[in-house]
Request: fold
Amino acid sequence: MSKKIKVAIIGSQFISHIHALSLKRCAEAELIAVASPTPGNAQRFASKHNIPHHFTDYAKLLAMPEVDMIVVGAPNDCHCRITLDAAATGKHVVVEKPLCLNLAEADRMIDSCRRAKVKLMYAEELCFTPKYVRLKQLLDSGALGAPTLLKQSEKHDGPHAAHFWDVNRSGGGVTMDMGCHAIEFFRWMLGRPPIKSVYAQMGTHVHQNKTEGDDNALIIIEFASGVVALAEESWTKIGGMDDRAEVHGAKGVAYADLLRGNAIETYSADGYDYAVEKAGSTKGWSFAIYEEEWNYGFPQEMAHFVDCVQNDKQPLVTGEDGRAVLEVIFAAYESARTGRKVKLPFKTDAKKPSDLWKQIT
Amino acid sequence: MSKKIKVAIIGSQFISHIHALSLKRCAEAELIAVASPTPGNAQRFASKHNIPHHFTDYAKLLAMPEVDMIVVGAPNDCHCRITLDAAATGKHVVVEKPLCLNLAEADRMIDSCRRAKVKLMYAEELCFTPKYVRLKQLLDSGALGAPTLLKQSEKHDGPHAAHFWDVNRSGGGVTMDMGCHAIEFFRWMLGRPPIKSVYAQMGTHVHQNKTEGDDNALIIIEFASGVVALAEESWTKIGGMDDRAEVHGAKGVAYADLLRGNAIETYSADGYDYAVEKAGSTKGWSFAIYEEEWNYGFPQEMAHFVDCVQNDKQPLVTGEDGRAVLEVIFAAYESARTGRKVKLPFKTDAKKPSDLWKQIT
Amino acid sequence: MSKKIKVAIIGSQFISHIHALSLKRCAEAELIAVASPTPGNAQRFASKHNIPHHFTDYAKLLAMPEVDMIVVGAPNDCHCRITLDAAATGKHVVVEKPLCLNLAEADRMIDSCRRAKVKLMYAEELCFTPKYVRLKQLLDSGALGAPTLLKQSEKHDGPHAAHFWDVNRSGGGVTMDMGCHAIEFFRWMLGRPPIKSVYAQMGTHVHQNKTEGDDNALIIIEFASGVVALAEESWTKIGGMDDRAEVHGAKGVAYADLLRGNAIETYSADGYDYAVEKAGSTKGWSFAIYEEEWNYGFPQEMAHFVDCVQNDKQPLVTGEDGRAVLEVIFAAYESARTGRKVKLPFKTDAKKPSDLWKQIT
Amino acid sequence: MSKKIKVAIIGSQFISHIHALSLKRCAEAELIAVASPTPGNAQRFASKHNIPHHFTDYAKLLAMPEVDMIVVGAPNDCHCRITLDAAATGKHVVVEKPLCLNLAEADRMIDSCRRAKVKLMYAEELCFTPKYVRLKQLLDSGALGAPTLLKQSEKHDGPHAAHFWDVNRSGGGVTMDMGCHAIEFFRWMLGRPPIKSVYAQMGTHVHQNKTEGDDNALIIIEFASGVVALAEESWTKIGGMDDRAEVHGAKGVAYADLLRGNAIETYSADGYDYAVEKAGSTKGWSFAIYEEEWNYGFPQEMAHFVDCVQNDKQPLVTGEDGRAVLEVIFAAYESARTGRKVKLPFKTDAKKPSDLWKQIT
Reply:
């Protein structure tokens, strides 16, 4: 068994909390430090997530020899500098999206990590989103035929932290903040082919008082293969986050709504491997589920039972519960035979529930 | 750190595969043995899931002193005997639903586990189903007011294995096989209050040639509190598995469709804690998401990056990808200013993307 | 051409307004009188709907020889008396649901209309609901195979007028008020076969202070054919009216949500006649539209244009609008060729839009 | 009462059948003639729709002095010539979309109709589509705040008739054929303000063998007011017609799926007039129904009953049906009291159903 990876976080805002929670769920990771320049932030963050070390100066964090990997959730304009410093100390680096402010920065980051032989990882979570992973499998399996149009859209009413509104820190508006998701999504879905051209329509429709950045954008990307992709981004859409994707192909179409719809609504002329338990056919319309076992809770259930054994806890569901269910089932079969409501508690010597229905007494 | 729990599986059919896959995802469990009486089944199962020990006789499995806990996925008529034997050897027992064939068996199982001081755990996965867990939180938080009616339904076109159709082995039809889910779901949702009465309508509508059991059932349960619950079960519903629940309360209603549906479609007169990122209001209709971070893939992403560092693998998303995204973003801002399609590759010395939009050159 | 039918309304509450609006849309009907006992109600009603005659005493309305047909929207306890009086004066009678308070009344109403040779029509609108009419066609066409289970449900937060809450006037609670819809729906869907048995679960869960009637009910009906039907009714469901039906058959299933979903979500093992324009296949899942032309607005469009000609009005959409659209289309093809945003107004001598794309100038 | 308008149809393909069926539903129109050049087509069309006159030469149709109005469903390249000829004979003209092939034709059509003092009406049915009419009302009422982005999309797998594929007859591909719907939809929704610019992305992705026209298109329109509109059109989308619209505003958003979707799914920060019966609140998310009475079938029901009286037909729902319903209701209340299934036929002297529940005998 390999040794656990010791991880440190730089940043203490919204996304850094998600990083911390995610790392806590990772059996192979150990979160040991956090750095954030605003006095008190790192301390509160460390306390909340039970992290042993915290710093206002990230240089001290990088100086810890036991740290293997850092996760950068600081504002966009800090990404380059932190990455260069981390590479210099031999740490692997995860950088939250977007990578940095400009192409020169990007080149320097890539180059210095390569020279330092550390990994530079770009945190585009849509490549790991279970429903989109399933969507890519559908496309890759040929379920939809050759793709013609891809769509991805992210919409909400504006970012969490102040630095997003300041283009000097963020580098741009909604195109920079959320368009970056769509762009990598398209590249990943298609196997990262070359892009031929880009067209964009942008506007600052609602938040003129808050930002010089764009708060609404439509972006059309042509891939060299002829596939067209449409990104639709908004910082002015109220009523909750919206995150959706579509893949249109010559032999099918699939709609994936990340937050509202569970299954991927799919039309496939030729059918595909598997939609859902007992689906019958996958030709025509079907509803492709993703991570079926997880959605039923089987792994969670087993983990709970293991925890009960390991730590001598009371299980959520016990033999007594199983018995109570069985009593109701017996009463149900009794009722089905008699046409009457059956009162509980219900005693019976029947050998099995169905005996009561068929009046085998 | 506690020691890992060593687990063995008894059974090799559909549900046992789910048990194995789920245990593999559990960092604290180690799956070390499987038993199944049909020659070859245990071996194939062990090989598929990479389990070191396999037996046709489960007594040999129980004889392994290192096994802490067993998971019983054998047919219903074996549940009692296996549980008694397991308790006698001091193993903790997880029993797949339904608990056993009759109440006398249930009493013996509970009693023998209690005497042997081993845990008897009843594997009702709906109590762990993430969407239903969120539904229970909504109800418990008062979002829906006092409950009036609960509904739960499971429907497909019939069970996987032959023994389900034989009431001598299964104990009953769809009420036994799937009604048991609904019954425990209702009890769990309401905090396991006493049940006052049960009424059931059953029929064998389609599968008369295959079974003496019921293939369709409606079950009405009255709780002592006055709450009514309706279970609707079918083994004749084609077009794929259906698993849904509803909670109707005096101040709201919530619909949870496990496989197709929305994030929980919720109406709350008074509102509640949290629906989804930037939801605005939770009064009236809202769409309550569950396990939001997991559904975005954040934990999966971090686990992947940790794995790359631990095992020196190439990350799925790299610095080069981040740079490619940034190039498109620059091109997008250039396009937004010029009103033209911008060809890639696109070179620019701009310090940040939004500079190209506002023509700060 | 037959002469128009002269119609009178008895009642002035919620449902009578719907009767009036509906009759106004019926080219063959002429609404000429209304009666309501509360002083002022009939007058206001007549004024609102532009009805020439109004009465507080419905006997005067019945005395009008020119009235051919009356529509009774008065409270349930008046249905029998009014019907008997109407029959005595030779008027055809439409009675709003439910028919009356008891079976003796029903027999008298049927008998007296038969003797008077007037039609007694029972206003169950679900038999005319376009989406349910389409649902019945699906069932009748064999798309779903032999039916096993029918469901219909109506739920809201309680009735409009005070007399519904008084069981002496209404005859019962939500079962009487809304269960009657489901019962006739089931009979109609199945071709009105005999019913074998009825089971009901009722409660007064929320409105105990307002009524002695039931405010929630589950009703299970067994037809002689073995088909089971489940009615689910509520006067306590907040968040807007809910009206849904399901038909489960051995070879398919169809879900019709009257208010929220447009198409009927249908699974058919064998397929059926027509789902929607260019549907491809109707095997497996499909989305059966109803009244497709009306939903597109074609009849409304033609009626508007006819009205413009008949009454010399300005059309909603003119030749100038058609020209403006064409200008945009030319600009679009120009843009597609040049990769640039095209400013309007746009002048071109191109013979047709696509010439600009293919640069045939 | 004005005299009925006498209407003639020119064309005999898909859309002309819709014209005929729509005119048949219009009480004020009388369809008296049809013309189509292909031998036999007009005759078959006339026979199918019961139209007294049919011609291969439309000049003969225009020569009929009694014709008030013509509806042109012929291919796009005939629109101009027919309109000029019709204007010369003093007929009002309805022209199916798109108006004609080029702007010079459009100008001549508008001019000649104006001089002849006949109406030139442009048949954009989306301005009459009930769900979109409701969507416009939502926007106009301020429910969504100031609009930022409008979307409309129409997608199917290609046109019905051969002339659509020939750009010499049609003038263009999917942009011409279906983009024209979106363009007028946007203009109408916004009150027809000036358009500032147009950008389009087009491609022939799938039907290269069939057409020189575009089979997929994205069109971005900027209005002078700053509102952006996005049209998305496809002739390659399989699985059935798709017709959807969205309105995004600073204070809300509304989604209207014409064929599948919800009653308009609406988020409104401030609320609006009416969503659906008993909706409670219209702030936040709500589901705005359209043509509620029609969707319930009330006008259809009344028209049926009037027809029964006028033509002495047997009503679909009779007093006997009302009685049968009542019998079930009595049985239901009896069952609710006794907790037993009640067999039918059920006799009772109870004065009203609820008496049986409360055991007032």
The mean pLDDT of chain A is 86. Chain A touches chain B through 157 residues (CB under 8 Å).
